[in-house]
Amino acid sequence: MYLKELRMVKVGVHVSIAGSIDRAVLRAQESGCDTFQIFSRNPRGWAAKPLEEEDAIRFREALATSGIAPTFDHMPYLPNLATPKDDLFERSVSALQEELLRAAALGIPYVVTHLGHHQGAGDEAGEARVIAALDRVVGEAPPGVMLLLENTAGEKNSVGSRLDSIARILGACDCGSRLGVCFDTCHAFAAGYELRTRDGIEEILALFDETIGLTRLRLVHCNDSKGALGSGLDRHEHVGLGAIGEEGFRLLLHRPELSGLPFICETPEDGRRDGAGNIAKVRELAA
Where does 2-286 sit in CATH, by number? Predict the structure, then answer.
C-alpha cells in the first residue's frame, strides 16, 4: 500500500465549457479527473462573452463540491506577447489582463499562457516584449492567481522553446514571485529535449532546476508527440502512442522531482481513445 501511494499521480484533462462554464466540472468528474484545465472563453477569437456573476458562482460551487484541485485556465490562442507589432501587443496585453480577472472570478488559481512569436524581430526583442507585458499585467492582477509560462515546441520565431529563454524572462520580471512554469512534454520533445530515456529525462530535469528552479514548476502538460525529436512540430498525440512512447512516460511519471505535480492531458479525442482513456493510461504507467 505504501509503494502504491508513493506512485499515485494527480491527472486530468482539458475539458469543454460548452453549454455553461459550470458543466466543465461535471465533465471533469465523468472523465475521472483529479485536476483539469479549461478555456474560460472561445480560444480562437478575440471577442469574449462577459463572464456573468451567476455563472462564476455556479462554477465555484460545483468545483468546491467536486473536490477536484488544482484547476487551470488556459489563455486563448490569438494573443502574442512577443510580437513587435504595437497594435497586436496591446490587444494581447488586454487579453491577458482579462483572463487573469476571469480566473480570479472563477476561483481558478492558475492561468497558463504561451509566450508567442517574435515574427522575425529576434529572440532578445521577443523576450523583452514578453517581460514588458508581464510586468504591466501580473503585478496588478487579482491576488491568488499565478501565471504559468508554457514552453513552446521550437516553431520558427517562437519564444520560450528553450529553458534558458524562460529562465531569462523569469529573472528579468519584477513580478517574478507571481510567475511559474507549465512544462509541456510534446513541446519539449519537439524542441529537441530527449524524453524517451532515463539519461535524457535526468538531463532535462537537472537543466530545468539549474536554469529555472523546479520549485517554479506547477503543472505538466502530459502529451505525446506526433512529430520526431527536434521536429518543431506542435502536434499532440495520445499518451504512449506517439514518438515519446510508453516507456518515456513511465520514466517521467516515476521521477521523484515530479511527484505530487498535476499532469493534464491535452490529447485528441478520436476512435482510438478519449480523455478518460488517457487518464487511465497515465495511471497505468504511473502504477
Answer: 3.20.20.150
